[in-house]
From TrEMBL:
GO cellular component: cytoplasm
CDD domains reported for this sequence: AKR_AKR13C1_2
Name under which the protein is recorded: Aldo/keto reductase
InterPro entries given in the database record: Aldo-Keto_reductase, NAD(P)_OxRdtase_dom_sf, NADP_OxRdtase_dom, TAT_signal
Gene3D superfamilies per the UniProt record, alphabetical: NADP-dependent oxidoreductase domain
Coiled coil: none
Gene Ontology terms for molecular function: oxidoreductase activity
Organism classification: Bacteria, Pseudomonadati, Bacteroidota, Flavobacteriia, Flavobacteriales
PROSITE patterns found in the cross-reference section: TAT
Origin species: Euzebyella marina
Keywords associated with the record: Oxidoreductase
PANTHER family found in the cross-reference section: AFLATOXIN B1 ALDEHYDE REDUCTASE (PTHR43625), ALDO-KETO REDUCTASE (PTHR43625:SF77)
Ranges for domain NADP-dependent oxidoreductase: 66-355
Amino acid sequence: MKNKKNHSNNNGISRREFASRSALGLAGLTVSSTLGVVAQNTKTNMSGTSTNTTNRMLGDLEVSGIGLGCMSMKSGSYNPPRDKSEMIPVIRGAVDLGVTFFDTAEVYGPFTDEELVGEALQPVRDQVVIASKFGFNLTSGSRSGRNSKPANIKTAVEGMLKRLRTDRIDLLYLHRVDPEVPVEDVAGTVKELIKEGKALHFGLSEVAPDTIRRAHAEQKVAAVQSEYSMIERVLENQVIDTCGELGIGFVPWGVVNRGFLGDKFNEYSRFSDDSRFSSVPYFTPEAIKAHMPVLTLVREWARKKDATPAQIALAWVMEQKPYIVPIPGTTKLHHMKENMGALNIQFTVQELQEFRTELEKIPLIGVRAPETALTDR
Ligand SMILES: NC(=O)c1ccc[n+]([C@@H]2O[C@H](COP(=O)([O-])OP(=O)(O)OC[C@H]3O[C@@H](n4cnc5c(N)ncnc54)[C@H](OP(=O)(O)O)[C@@H]3O)[C@@H](O)[C@H]2O)c1
């Protein structure tokens, strides 16, 4: 990650400007808090009983209000790689809980997470939305640079269809922009794949507002996926608003801040050099200590709302805009169940303002500078 170390969220733009953008976002909420939300959805799950969930729209694509990020399951990004026999019940259990939105990518593993997701969801393929991502050179079997040349995208999609045991990718994302390929060419290639029926919707990941506009002009974008949480709020600088303006859904990852906002760590948590956590700027001893007041605030709201910290982290993000659909990653079905409980938590506009005021008082370490939101990552 290229995260610059800075000690507040408003490096590069004035505090007043940043605060007024936040206030504008909140003002938008009062008018739009029910828009984009689809009414209660009753469906039959794998064990034949009924579950209810509140769906949301990503452009024209309807998904459960919370999805499941499958990245760390088989590839073991934030945990040791888990066995397929342990993870299939988590994915199928999520379906039973009403989750219809599953996120993977060819680079996770590479390939092994898609294989897992494909096998787990095969019995319910027509009831779920599968999202996957292309954009890297994986011809040697491991990641070697970015590659979004049309031929590579088409090869990637053929592989995805086999691994995911399906004839279409519901949401096909560009994972990272390839500086050598104009995004219009990427969008044009996805447009062809959509015409062929191999992809149904187009998504972008970690992109600047201008890239979103250029891609969307060539092929309608359904969703933009990027990191966003109470701790990493840089995308409040134009990206999330651009999605709203263009009718594009926003899919945040890292919403529970890799478990930190789920109360998984404490101020003394330390990570070995070979752990993925050690490369994340929020997990230095200094940053963990600095961010404990955020966790304290989250715990306070959890008490007020009779909820858990992870539920508050998810509900807070969802309350920012009605077109936001988080995809928390988990290897544990009880965490998935807990996370789905966030769908039942609401904040009033006044509560959100109070929350925001307290949050903005806390200096953060390792977060991105606002201007970095205006360039592709
Ligand atoms: N587009 C991109 O570039 C990009 C980048 C990163 C990730 N993603 C996608 O986004 C998904 C989520 O991102 P992420 O995994 O990086 O971040 P995340 O969702 O913030 O964090 C996942 C971590 O949080 C823990 N967790 C989840 N629910 C919890 C709960 N209720 N209580 C306590 N801990 C909890 C999980 O541990 P347990 O396993 O113990 O529950 C896991 O280690 C990924 O799976 C992937 O699909 C996309």
